[in-house]
Design brief:
There is one protein chain. With 308 residues, the protein is of the alpha/beta class. It folds into 2 domains: 146 residues, Rossmann fold (3-Layer(aba) Sandwich); 147 residues, Rossmann fold (3-Layer(aba) Sandwich), CATH 3.40.50.1370. The protein has a 5-stranded parallel sheet with strand order 7-6-5-8-9, with helices on one face. Strand 5, helix 6 and strand 6 form a beta-alpha-beta unit. Helix 1 crosses helix 5, helix 5 packs across helix 6 and helix 5 crosses helix 11. It is globular, with a radius of gyration of 19 Å. It starts with 20 loop residues before the first helix and ends with a helix. Phosphoric acid mono(formamide)ester binds next to helix 2. GO terms for molecular function: amino acid binding; aspartate carbamoyltransferase activity.
């Protein structure tokens, strides 16, 4: 059942912590409405959006492209490799330029944590910022699409048992999700290599060996091994990681029948989870990618409402 969403207005979307529970639930419900074919009524005849990606992306970048086009926004193309970034232009100056050109909203992915601080403090930059991922910091739009996918499945968060498994230290997805899932009443567990787990996560949930979690969780959220953040140091072979910390076919047989498997993707098949599970019956990975478009439509709408 979908409860009709309230109108939400946001200046920026930088972290999930900054959202109220009502805003989170409103964005999820609005995402569901868009999925069911709802329309958006713009306040102005023309809005401009740009997607500034300084780190690689398929899902986030392209689902924002699709979401913007579905809403009827004009999308200003930007490639860091062919822009004045190559002449030394800073992120601040790129965004200042986009703002001066009349861009209403900039979706940004950047390798620096909290890159957005100087942008939102600027008195000159007028465009709204949506964080598409900041280093190992946060990935709020992925968190919202993950929450939408869980809500679509269960219809509630209170008391759900959610395991977050894998390279937690380097995962911005995990950090956004652990905060918001705990706040919404889910019981969070962690598993994976101890060296990729930090005691600071204990405020959100407890660490358990993977084999102790299989039979009790409702959601098994596997994380990508973030090779690009390991400074070239690899502690596991792919096979060894899969056998020790991965969701193997044998482990998946122990999951409850109603349990779902999630992964933000891209998936390292046969590493975090077995190849045959990626598109299997209990997987919601494809649904997560599709939901990304609809929840991002809801986020863009909220930010453009904020400008009105
Ligand atoms: N899940 C996710 O952020 O994927 P991309 O890196 O492809 O955007």
């Amino acid at each position: 059942m979908i409860i009709k969403s309230e109108r939400i207005s946001l200046k920026h979307l930088l972290t999930v912590e900054a959202l109220t529970d009502q805003e989170v639930m409103g964005l999820i419900r609005r995402g569901q409405e868009f999925k069911q074919g709802a329309n958006w009524t713009p306040q102005k005849p023309q809005y401009f959006a740009t997607n500034l990606f300084f780190e690689n992306s398929t899902r986030t970048h392209k689902s924002f492209d699709v979401a913007e086009k579905k809403l009827g926004l004009e999308v200003i193309e930007f490639e860091a490799s062919t822009s004045s970034v190559q002449k030394g232009e800073t992120l601040y100056d790129t965004v200042l330029t986009m703002s001066a050109l009349g861009v209403d909203v900039a979706v940004i992915r950047h390798g620096d944590e909290n890159y957005y601080d100087e942008l939102i403090q600027s008195k000159t930059i007028q465009c709204s910022i949506i964080n598409g991922g900041d280093g190992s910091g946060q990935h709020p739009t992925q968190c919202l699409l993950d929450l939408m996918t869980i809500y679509e499945e269960f219809g509630y968060f209170e008391g759900l048992k959610v395991a977050i498994v894998g390279d937690i230290t380097h995962s911005r997805v995990a950090k956004s999700n652990m905060q918001m899932l705990k706040r919404l009443g889910a019981q969070v567990f962690f598993s994976g290599p101890r060296e990729w787990y930090d005691e600071e996560f204990e405020v959100y949930g407890h660490y358990l060996p993977l084999d102790e979690l299989l039979e009790q969780v409702d959601v098994m959220m596997m994380l990508r091994v973030q090779h690009e953040r390991h400074d070239g140091k690899e502690s596991f072979s792919k096979e060894a990681y899969h056998q020790e910390y991965g969701l193997t076919v044998e482990r998946a047989k122990k999951l409850q029948k109603h349990a779902i498997i999630m992964h933000p993707a891209p998936v390292n098949r046969d590493v975090e989870l077995a190849d045959s599970l990626v598109e299997g019956l209990q997987s919601r990975i494809v649904q997560q990618m599709s939901n990304g478009v609809f929840v991002r439509m809801a986020i863009l709408e909220a930010v453009l409402n904020g400008k009105a």
